[in-house]
Amino acid sequence: MKRFVRWSVFLWTVAAAFLLCGNVAKASELTIREGIYAEEDSLAGMTAQEADAMIRDKIAKMGSSFVTLIAADGNEVTVTADALGIAWANPEIITEAVRIGTEGNVIQRYKALKDLEMQPEVYDIELRFDIAAINDVLVEHCVKYDVKPQDAALTRVDDEFQITEGSVGYELDVENSIDVIHDYLQNSWDGKDCRIKLTVAEERPRGTAEDLAEVKDLLGSYTTDYSSSNANRRGNVANGASKINGTLLYPGEIFSATQTVSPFTEANGYTLAGAYLNGKVVQSVGGGICQVSSTLYNAVLLAELEVLERNPHSMIVTYVPASMDAAIAEEAGKDFKFRNNKDYPIYIEGYTKNKKITFNIYGKETRPADRTVTYESEILETTQPTIDLITADPTKPIGYVTTEAAHVGYKARLWKIVKEGGKEVSRDIINNSKYMVSPRSAVVGVATDEAWKYEEMMAAIGTYDLDHVRVVIGLLNSQ
Known about the structure:
By secondary structure, this protein is α+β, with helices and mostly antiparallel strands. The chain folds into 3 domains: 1-47 and 92-124, no CATH class; 64-90 and 126-206, Ubiquitin-like (UB roll), CATH 3.10.20.800; 214-366, no CATH class. Helix content is 32%, strand content 32%. Strands 13-21-20-14 form a 4-stranded antiparallel β-sheet. Helix 1 (2-27) crosses helix 4 and helix 11 (451-461) packs antiparallel against helix 12.
């Protein structure tokens, strides 16, 4: 019996070797065995190159499938999978497939083939997509369908407010949409035409008709006079007021005077007029705009909005008391900024009439009816100019004089006084301001053919006294 068993085992081994001899020949050609699949496609009998080409052709056909992306407000963008950077992520499965049943000794190869008969080997074809390509498609073709929210608007016509309802906005969430596209195509896509809804954020407009209907109370108003200004300066003041007029600020929003009225160019409606620069009056495009910001500053103070930035002029101005001005200068970085610190919107009305500029700030009045707010300017120190600054001009004759007025220097302080029921309840310092002293200056002609007159003029100029210079001019011209 034992001899029979040993003989049977020997015959079985020989038979197995005989059966495998043909397969050994095929293995030398590196062909893939029966029972090996790439997903639903059989790879049996293919060489590595043939299997690789078959799968790449399949992926190429998938790349021509259309992917429709649903962007903001239901707009659709259709691209191919190729445009999203489709690629084969696991080509190493071909090498693995070829090895099954072709490596090892006869018994190992035979066992591998018998295993395939019992349980086929099925490889998943894994895809990858180019994140940068997906981002480019979204940015170049989908973002354009974003819709900005339109805030509820308020205008004032013939002393009456008119309200325009706002509208919802939509904005594509690019980063999240990249993840949505990538996850779907890698994990759920069947390779055919498909539709993917992108992540779109809804942006609600600020304000409602109900909110704006509350804007009807006058919170602060201030007027300054510019009747002594020339036509150019008057035009600049009116232009600046018009650019601020109609401003609607929602709670927490910040207003910048410089940003609102600039740039100071002729194209933006401004002309040359006098302005302060380094203690001098110079001609500047937009000269006079600081009267606009200063008038608004005082209306803001009366409305008790939160002032974030305010700068005094280099020298004292005449249209508001000391410390009640607010200079702006684009190049110097000076701005007047304030925040709407109320729980409701505010509306700024600005206009010019009869050579006066007025700003009215409207909102919802929540302060007690018996509460009053006033502001008081206090002069702390005065500095008078001690000499005149006189420049000789050898190109002009004796008798030629141009002058620029002196400016007294000041240190000043602004107080805020609050009364309730007619009784003062608080007195707070709002700002401290310093204004430089500027001497009276003049350009005096000294050209003459008579040396002694020239010497007399230069001696007079050396006294730094313009009144004395005028006396000397009178005497010389009388001779």
